[in-house]
Design brief:
The complex is a heterodimer of chains A (580) and B (139). By secondary structure, chain A is α+β, with helices and mostly antiparallel strands. Chain A is built from 20 helices and 16 strands. Chain A has helices at residues 18-36, 40-71, 119-129, 135-142, 156-163, 187-190, 202-206, 208-217, 227-244, 279-282, 285-288, 298-307, 342-347, 351-372, 397-404, 413-424, 449-465, 533-536, 538-552, 572-579, and strands at 92-93, 99-111, 148-154, 170-179, 221-222, 248-255, 261-267, 316-318, 323-325, 328-330, 339-341, 428-429, 444-445, 479-489, 492-506, 517-524. In chain A, helix 9 (227-244) runs antiparallel to helix 19, helix 12 (298-307) packs across helix 17 and helix 14 (351-372) crosses helix 15 (397-404). Chain B is rod-shaped and about 110 Å long. The longest helix of chain B is centred in the N-terminal third of the chain and has 55 residues, at 17-71.
Chain lengths: 580, 139
């Protein structure tokens, strides 16, 4: 029996395995010694035994590991991908969490004609269950040669109706659809998405990426609007629009301090769930339509004059005769034919007075203030519909006179609201926003805090003593400015085609940082006389303020003119008149 | 080594005890792996079923929320309120919390029979209550 020479332990071995090599070699030595001693059978048995032990130990170790990892290790495996409740587009909610738009699973109806037994019966029953099903499409699929979709967008109720027919060859496939449960309410603010889910208009387009990101997180996306105020605005705007038989109307409520749009309505309305709505109804007139606003602009002219030091409340303007600029003669609608103070110019809405002031300020000053009030650029709001104004090319004296009382510049209602907000919030231009909390940045000084306080005083006086009396709401210290303008039709201003507006603010008292709200209503081409803002728009503004003040946290209180319940407080001049 | 060898050579009916022991352990391990995997599979199926249920419930919640929003539409509520003869609250109808004590009821209500009863003796109260119960029970 030949002995094979034992090889020595290799020198280059990893230190951690050296002891294993030595163990195996020592075992081999013992086996060879046993063989040499004539006990070869024991050598074989021991080898088999050792191999069994090694395999047994390995198997036990693997089993223990498997049991451990299956039962005791780590957390439960995750099955879903991303956040629970993730959707392609987030729910849109108002500032208080009320639902405005949501993605709801709809179903596509499929038919496999090979599995339909009685096609005529199936056709009759399906038409009865789904009256809006297209006849030609149903006929084509039922008598076709392959499975095909007959109709998409079935609601769960419609699906249940078809399912209850128990017809063969019918199947459903889920599809995600955007629904607007409020129908026409806030439709212009919310906007629309296309079938593929991309935002087309309104907040859906303005915040498209943010809405998708929130959807992936399974969280809703909050807009700045308050559905309660929105409801009040829409109901009052609709009532006023019907009463005045208007062509179109706009209503806006904003927080002047933060720039948040709390409500926005455009008339005529449309239902975003109805894809056949006309383009005219779909147009958001607050952001995309231009108007020569009329006397609402007098607030901006008077503010510029006060702020630039060209006038104070006691400064007088001669409005006893029409103002001649070149061949043009400027008259007053409510002619007083006398010399008036600036306050009287504002309250009696004197075109002559504001024209004189504008001409005195000159184009540079007027342009600077109009620029700072955001009247020469598109409103910096998130809405993609926000249109740029139509501004005058040459700022001549006659242009300045026109601008001073709201002609010669076509602005969007949102521009007028943003500029009014800057006049009443302490003098800062704040970009409007549909995002809850408002936009960050973009603020600039438009007028001084002192000018802002004076404008508030003038606006309140205008409601108490001037053309805005119908906008007052008991105890809410409403101020504002009416606007009435004739529209340009075929190159001429027509007295038949007019618009009336009212830019209101409340409350007008309190310190500079008091939260103030701007309520703006515009009636385009009212059919009933009188067509001025004081009659067609101011009453609606008053009702909106009266009904929404509670939602906005504005308490009713007395001021120097009226009690908290709206009764008149006698003024010194009243007593003087009574004594005479 | 002798003890080990004796253990190794220990046989029952010609089969080594070591081998029987090994086979029993192997069977136990196989069975435990089967039980473990079956339990894990059962839990997986339960988790999948619960997740599907959660997804269905979430969809149902979304649907119901949309239905609530539809029913609470401002124009619908206003229209229903007007049909019911309701109108926006007038300024004279409002009061702050501080004014509650100063508000007088429009018509002073007459003292209720219960208040009169409470002032009477307990026996009389019980008799009155029983009499009232009889009166109310009559058609």
């Amino acid at each position: 029996m030949s002995h094979q020479p034992l090889r020595e332990t290799p020198r280059v071995v990893a230190p951690s395995f050296r002891w294993v090599s030595r163990l195996i070699l020592s075992l081999e030595h013992s086996f060879q010694r046993a063989k040499a001693a004539g006990r070869a059978e024991e050598d074989t048995r021991v080898r088999i035994f050792l191999i069994r032990i090694v395999f047994g130990a390995l198997f036990v170790a693997l089993s223990a590991g498997a049991v451990n990892s299956a039962l005791f290790r780590g957390e439960a495996p995750t099955f879903g991908v991303g956040s629970p409740g993730a959707v392609s587009r987030a729910d849109l909610v108002d500032r208080n969490g009320h639902l405005l738009a949501s993605n709801i699973e709809h179903h596509g109806l499929f038919i496999d004609p090979a599995e339909v037994w009685d096609r005529e019966l199936a056709k009759t029953q399906l038409k009865r269950a789904l009256p809006k099903l297209s006849d030609s499409r149903l006929q084509r699929v039922l008598y076709g040669d392959r499975r095909a979709m007959v109709m998409g967008g079935l609601t769960p109720q419609e699906k249940a109706r078809v399912h209850a027919l128990a017809l063969g060859g019918i199947s459903f496939e889920p599809e995600d659809r955007r629904v607007y449960p409020l129908g026409p309410s806030a439709a212009h603010v919310i906007g629309l998405t296309e079938t593929g889910g991309k935002g087309l208009s309104g907040a859906e387009a303005a915040f498209d990426a943010d809405i998708r990101a929130a959807g992936r997180m399974g969280e809703p996306f909050a807009l700045s609007i308050d559905l309660r105020v929105q409801g009040v605005l829409e109901n009052e705007l609709r009532a006023a629009a019907v009463e005045n038989a208007v062509k179109g109307a706009v209503g806006i409520v904003t927080n002047a301090n933060t720039g948040e749009i709390l409500a926005l309505a455009s008339y005529p309305e449309f239902d975003p769930n109805d894809r056949s709505a006309s383009m005219d109804a779909r147009m958001n007139r607050a952001a995309a339509a231009h108007y020569e606003m009329g006397s609402v602009f007098k607030s901006f002219t008077v503010a510029a004059g006060l702020d630039a030091g060209y006038a104070d409340l006691a400064t007088t303007f001669d409005a006893s005769d029409p103002l001649k600029i070149g061949s043009r003669s400027i008259r007053d609608f409510h002619a007083q034919n006398r010399i008036m103070t600036l306050e009287e110019v504002f309250i009696h809405s004197s075109n002559i007075g504001t024209s004189r002031l504008a001409v005195e300020m000159g184009p540079a000053v007027m342009r600077r203030y109009f620029q700072n009030l955001g009247l020469l650029d598109a409103t910096p709001v998130e809405l993609k519909e926000s249109a740029a104004p139509v501004t005058p090319r040459n700022w001549t004296d006659t242009t300045l006179a026109s601008l001073s009382f709201g002609y010669g510049l076509m602005a969007t209602p949102l521009q007028a609201v943003a500029a009014t907000g800057a006049l009443v919030n302490g003098g800062e231009f704040v970009p409007l926003s549909l995002r809850k909390g408002g936009q960050q940045g973009g603020r600039r000084r438009a007028v001084s805090a002192q000018t802002s306080a004076t404008i508030l005083q003038l606006m309140r006086a205008n409601v108490i003593k001037g053309s805005g009396g119908r906008a007052d709401a008991p105890g809410l210290r409403v101020g504002g400015k009416t606007g009435s303008a004739n529209k340009l039709v075929n190159g001429r201003y027509s007295s038949v085609h007019a618009l009336g507006s009212f830019a209101g603010v409340f409350p007008t008292d309190g310190p500079a940082d008091t939260p103030r709200y701007v309520v703006f209503i515009l009636m385009d081409e009212p059919a009933n006389y009188p067509r001025t803002g004081g009659f067609v728009a101011a009453p609606a503004v008053g009702r909106v303020i009266d009904r929404s003040a509670g939602f906005l946290g504005v308490e009713r209180a007395a001021d120097r003119w009226r009690t908290a319940t709206g009764e008149k407080i006698p003024q010194p001049e009243d007593l003087t008149e009574a004594a005479q | 080594m002798t003890a080990l060898k004796r253990l190794f050579d220990w046989k029952l009916r010609g089969v080594r005890v070591v081998e029987i022991f090994g086979a029993v352990i192997a069977c136990a391990l196989i069975f435990s792996v089967y039980v473990t995997k079956a339990a894990a599979d059962r839990e997986n199926r339960q988790i999948a079923s619960l997740e599907a249920e959660i997804a269905d419930d979430a969809e149902r919640v979304r649907l119901l929320r949309a239905e609530i929003a539809r029913l609470e539409r401002p124009d619908r509520l206003e229209s229903l309120s007007r049909q019911a003869g309701l109108q926006p609250v007038n300024v004279e109808q409002r009061a702050s919390v501080g004014q509650i004590e100063t508000l007088a009821p429009a018509n002073e209500p007459a003292p209720s029979p219960a208040a009169v009863d409470a002032a009477a003796t307990p026996a009389a109260t019980a008799a009155t209550a029983a009499a009232r119960a009889v009166t109310e029970a009559r058609p």
